Here is the input.
Amino acid sequence: MNREDEELNSLLRELSIEDEGAEPHGRRRARARLDAEIERSQAMGSPRRHRLSRRGAALVAALLAVPAGIAIAGELHEGDPRREIRDAFGNPAGLVPVDCPSVDEALDDAGLPRGPVVLGECPTPEALEELITNLRRAKVRRGAGATP
Amino acid sequence: MEENGTDGEIIVASLKSPARFGEIFERHYNAIRSYLGRRLDAALADELASETFVIAFRRRGDYEPARRSAAPWLYGIATNLLRSHRRAERRRVLAYARVPPEVEPDHSADAAARADAGVRAGEMAQALADLDAGDRDVILLHALAELSYQEIADAIGIPIGTVRSRLHRARRQLREPLTAGGQGRDEGEVIACE
Here is the structure.
């Protein structure tokens, strides 16, 4: 890295001053939350390997099950961070986060419709990439007729 | 740092002994919290730092054990979480742009230069807020988290060539206000710099 780049990084660090935060309370809470998650997983048994792959498969299955452009969104209950998606027949088809802009951006960039995506939570970049690839394949299989 | 094994070794071990994942927390929490704290307000940074480790724990089965350090992976999770809070981040940066660093009353000879630096910092904050979100992620992972190009590529799952092009574009856009400031300087400041 040259001197100019280092100076720019230094300026960015100066611009991004950390707030006086809740440390160490935040750290203690975070550790307690992780420990609770660890305990919960131990109670449940074996670790969940390949969880993303299974979720990816579930996403595509859900995608194929929901006709494009006819999803109906409705609030589950007040304060719930998700909304419900229903299929063309009014049957529940899954939950989608209210605010998941990374998915919206990726769909827009790929020229894919937002309607048919059903997610339980915002995916990791790797899962998102896999999702977009699978959506493209699905669109091709449908003869490019999925766009509402 | 690797007294009890590499991060990769610990994460693999945590598949059988989940409690070992606590070692990953102890190694990396401060850095991840600091990175988030530089991009978001303290309460949100606390929340997302906590969420980062819970998600990492749940996804530890997908970790590539050959990667000795889990830092890029964790920064990637944190950055992904941050994407749901773009507006909060932008508000924070823009607030800084509107109120650049306070310049205290100063009777020293370089007071004018400091005031100028404050104005340019505000302009740069504005430029940072105006960056494409993906470009901002890349340059801040480089500047704040001090990740290498390859680590950034691993963290957010993009090719290293894309990392380079995003960094180049971000640097060019961020330097614009600095360059404009430099052109507007008077001779006295130039002399003072020499």
